[in-house]
Amino acid sequence: MTTAEFQKRHGEARQFLLASNFAEARPRYEKLAQQYPRVAAIWAEYGNVAIRLREMDLADRAWHEALKLAPRDAELISLIGHQYQGARQPEKARACFAQAAATDPRGINPRISLAVLLEQQHHLEQARTAVVECLAIDPHDDQARYFQAVLDRRENKFEDAERRLRDLIGSEPKHPFVRYACRYELAQVLDRTDRFDEAMGMLAEAKTIVRGLTDTSLLTRGYDRGAENARRFTQGLPKHILHTWARFFPERKRESIGSLAFLGGHPRSGTTLLEQILDAHPGVAALDEPPAYVEVLQPAFHASKEHSSRRINALRRLYTQALRQELGARADGKLLVDKNPSPTVGLPVWLRVFPELRVLIALRDPRDVVLSCYFQNIPLNTVNVNFLSLERVAKHYADLMDIWLTVREWEGFAWLETRYEDTVTNLEKEGRRITEFLGLAWHEDQGRFYEKSRRKQLYSPTYQDVTRPIYKRSVARWRAYEKHLAPILPALAPYCRSFGYD
Prior knowledge:
Elements lengths: L2 H16 L3 H14 L4 H13 L3 H14 L4 H13 L3 H14 L5 H12 L3 H14 L4 H13 L3 H13 L5 H17 L3 H16 L4 H20 L5 H8 L11 E6 L5 H9 L4 E5 L3 H11 L6 H19 L7 E5 L7 H7 L4 E6 L2 H9 L15 H18 L6 E6 H6 L1 H11 L11 H5 L28 H4 L3 H10 L4
Parallel strand pairs: 1-3, 1-4, 2-3, 4-5
Helix pairs in contact: 1-2, 2-3, 3-4, 5-6, 6-7, 7-8, 7-9, 8-9, 9-10, 9-11, 10-11, 11-12, 13-20, 16-17, 19-20
């Protein structure tokens, strides 16, 4: 094959990859890898295709080959590290970032990537070492200066964190992420030191910068269409819909998939805390917002209008295999708990495919939920774009919880609501109630859930909050911000009544 022909075929394969048409890209990369086994980029991209098709073994082999062929290419090594990170393989990602940093003594990006990963794994001293290395290379680097302040805040060194963040803001950082992230971070420090008005002002600055970086109106319109469709569909179903579905998919036709539960509710309602309490039980394997529903079950379900027993059983296998692939041996013989707040709107799909599903819904004072969401600095998508204003957060809360208020009236499925405030008031009492609802007995390890959480890689934005014992600081937090929340309190009032918050 000539160079021109290779470039043509490689370009075609890459176009399918960039268009997320992984099924078409796979055979092309397979052939290219056979014909050009010494080209590291081919193997790296082949691994990217394989991981999106959930072929982890193939992705691992492809990336291993790329790393073997290009052991001094720091950029390629870092890119593979980020792919491993996205695939929830943190130790392999960490090894790649460390290798890239060792390969490039002046490389800041691999060291920052390593620091971020170490901080998420609660290795704060090692994370700081990586940041110090960055600052030795370039004392003015925006990312390193920002992350140094993050580590200060993690260690409750609020004065140091505030000083660094104000210096960083004053220097007008060029890095787009750092420009708004340092303001979000400073808002956290101001909140923790009881300067609530200043915190809200800093959040407003951060969100103004974010809006200037992307077309948020496009994301908002996309969200509104989807939310309205979900609401209309769910509220249009009769209360006996589960009995109707069961006639077409009776118990005798269901393939066994083991014990399964769904933990939902609105984001920032205490779902991560509940997940960690349950995961501390030796009979439970809880997953922190796994992609299996969004990337596997939901698209496969909507790919066809056929709802035969054969097809639904295939969907059940597809989804549970994805969960087990992520868990590995940890899944053996255990109750699987999928903790996923936003897919609560998909409960009709969950219950259509898994009629035996136990549904656990986390509740928290809606005013605290909205405020907490407003403080979050998380990547923009059609859901999180709502967190750019209090009015939009309140709308998102109503959209999601209206789905739940409708579904909980349906006949014929097992569900339980649990309040965050009850859990932090009496962990064992509420934890026992939840655990018994799932068919298990309370285990003493659940009272020390934070010990296990410190050893785990978590993916929720609140990963750091569940590494310490229960605290009550976040209960009724909204009262300190009542004047800022005043315009949306009437919209939240019906939900406060529905869920028992005066």
